[in-house]
Amino acid sequence: MQATLVEKDVFLLEGREGGPRSVVLAGVHGDEMPGIEAFERLLPTLEIQRGKVWFIYANPVTMALNRRVFEANLNRMFKSDEEMTKEQRKSYEYERAQFLKPYLEGAEVLLDIHASTTPTGKPKPFVLCEANAKGIIEYLPFNVVVNGFDEVEPGGTDYYMNKIGKIGICVECGFMTDPEASLRAEESILNFLKVRGHMEGEVSMYEQRWARMYTLYLTKVDFRPAKEFEDFEPVVTGQVLGTDGEEDVTAPRAGFVLFPREREGSGKEAFLFGEWMS
Prior knowledge:
By secondary structure, the protein is an alpha/beta fold.
């Protein structure tokens, strides 16, 4: 059976046989096109043999505006109410998270498609997950797997799935307007459906290197990177990564930086610090 529209922006694929239940999200950030484009190519003709798969355009308001966020970051809205500000709880994205939660709760595994806004170089595609995703992520078209995000940057869709005893997987497919990233998003979806048992077909394992995130740096005043870092760029102990107000921000030990961004104001996410595990 082909996809049916069950409510606005939510499509259901149902196999003729019973089986697993999965959710695939695109457009959590509305300007990240690869997952959205993959949905547009796949949904008109895609069929599965077993189980149920919900394909959801996660953040349609930001998709219409071609913006990352409308009033808040949807991928921080899956924490408890007590962990969020009053402004966050009043946002459109908070409301949208409540809409999405029943679909996440009704599935065993989530695949959330993202893309990078890193402006320099060619962003390295990678998987974000925890150890519970082993057995699935080895078949996704990525050579880097990063864990630890649930601890250092909670509130995402994958965080929520892990928190409720399910499996959450997020994939960063490359630069958000790169055609290769769009094709990688499509391959990720198809491989995911096969390894989950929704579809027949051969799928190969990928050689993967694991890393762990240890620190999310939040600004005190504002942050200016020391240079244009590429994602996963290695740094040494004590290396100046940027300035926060008048103070130098240095690497706590040897490792790498991820998503370094210029930020205005206090309490903003400036960069992540991690280390290779393998």
